[in-house]
């Protein structure tokens, strides 16, 4: 039954969440977070299969790739600003990747963790397809990597801008880079709602960090395993 209601339910929940956010602009009123919990509850309480919902909502899923490509529009609009700040952008994204993957490896070395779990969560800050691919190449579980990425994206979209305000990061370019580097596509969607500049720089950080993670993560993992064997 949920097959036939998948698209109407998804669109209705998205619209209701957007309306609620306009009335009460609280960070946790997120068009991904709240509909996700409601849909999960509907699937469980109705005894439906997740596969039925996925099949019914497949047309929406097909729009995901064009939506991601459309993020290049604000990127193109800010191309002059990006060229002028290319070096600090690359430096910031590189540090973001090193910190993200490095902290994961350090934390997992302190707490006994299965190697496949380490590989699955180390790519948490890049977009889902890249995270699944990089994680699998490192011996991780793609499904776990995808779940962690979604959770991190939602968390960044919810608390990212409040944290930036708390630390008095007010420059829209810096805000966009921070959100895109940590919260990939979900965070970028939230950044785009804040402004064209935030959306453009978040898109840029998402792409650059994805590429850098694919390059640097295997090197960091090799170093991690070498150190583990010699200590």
Automatic annotation (TrEMBL):
It holds the Pfam family LrgB. The chain crosses the membrane at residues 28-50, 56-76, 88-112, 138-164, 204-227. It is found in: Membrane. Keywords: Membrane, Transmembrane, Transmembrane helix. It is a multi-pass membrane protein. InterPro entries: CidB/LrgB. Its main location: membrane. It comes from the Bacteria. This is LrgB family protein.
């Amino acid at each position: 039954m949920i097959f036939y209601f998948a698209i109407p339910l998804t669109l209705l929940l998205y619209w209701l969440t957007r309306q609620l956010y306009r009335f009460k602009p609280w960070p946790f009123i997120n068009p991904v977070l709240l509909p996700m919990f409601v849909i999960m509850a509907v699937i469980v309480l109705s005894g439906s299969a997740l596969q039925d919902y996925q099949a019914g909502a497949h047309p929406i899923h097909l729009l995901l790739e064009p939506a991601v490509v459309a993020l290049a529009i604000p990127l193109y609009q800010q191309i002059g600003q990006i060229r002028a700040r290319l070096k600090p952008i690359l430096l910031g994204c590189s540090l973001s990747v090193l910190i993200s993957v490095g902290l994961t490896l350090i934390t997992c070395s302190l707490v006994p963790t299965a190697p496949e779990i380490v590989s699955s969560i180390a790519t948490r800050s890049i977009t889902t397809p890249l995270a699944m691919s990089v994680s699998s190449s490192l011996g991780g579980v793609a499904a776990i990597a995808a779940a962690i990425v979604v959770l991190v994206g939602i968390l960044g979209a919810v608390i990212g801008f409040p944290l930036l305000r708390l630390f008095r990061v007010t420059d829209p370019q810096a805000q966009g880079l921070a959100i895109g580097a940590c919260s990939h596509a979900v965070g970028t969607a939230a950044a785009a709602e804040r402004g064209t500049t935030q959306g453009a720089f978040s898109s840029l950080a998402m792409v650059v960090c994805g590429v850098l993670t694919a390059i640097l993560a295997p090197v960091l993992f090799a170093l991690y395993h070498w150190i583990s064997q010699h200590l």
